[in-house]
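Exercise 3.2. Students should predict the tertiary structure of the chain below and write it as C-alpha cells, then compare their answer with the key that follows.

Predict this chain's 3D structure.
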Amino acid sequence: MTRSLKKGPFTEPKLLKKISGKNPQNEPMIKTWSRASQIAPEMIGFLFGVYNGKTHIEVRVTEDMVGHRLGEFSPTKKFVLHGGKMQKELEQKKKEGEIAAAQAAKSETAPAAKK
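Answer key:
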C-alpha cells in the first residue's frame, strides 16, 4: 500500500542529517538500517550500506533510484537454484564452455600481438 500524498515521502531524518552539506565523492559508505527510507534527490551520488539482516550491502544512489526505497536494492533472501544434480551438471558444462571460449580467444590474439 502506498503512502498518503498529504503525509509526503518518508525519509529517515537521521539519514538526511548525515548527508546534509557533504560531498558524495569524499564521503565514505554511510551505514543505515532504515530500509523503508525513500530515496530523495539529495542522496544522488552517495554510497549507502543498507542492512539486509546479516550484512550491509553497498548501494550507490543514481538518478533512476529517486522515489524508490533503500530496501529495494538490498535483497534479504539469497536465491538458491532449483534443479539439484541435473542443474549442477548443466552449469558445469556451461562454465567449461566459457573457459574454453576464453582460452581460444586468448590464443588467437597472442600471435597477433607478437607480430
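Discussion points: Residues 81-115 form one domain. Residues 84-114 form the longest helix (31 residues).
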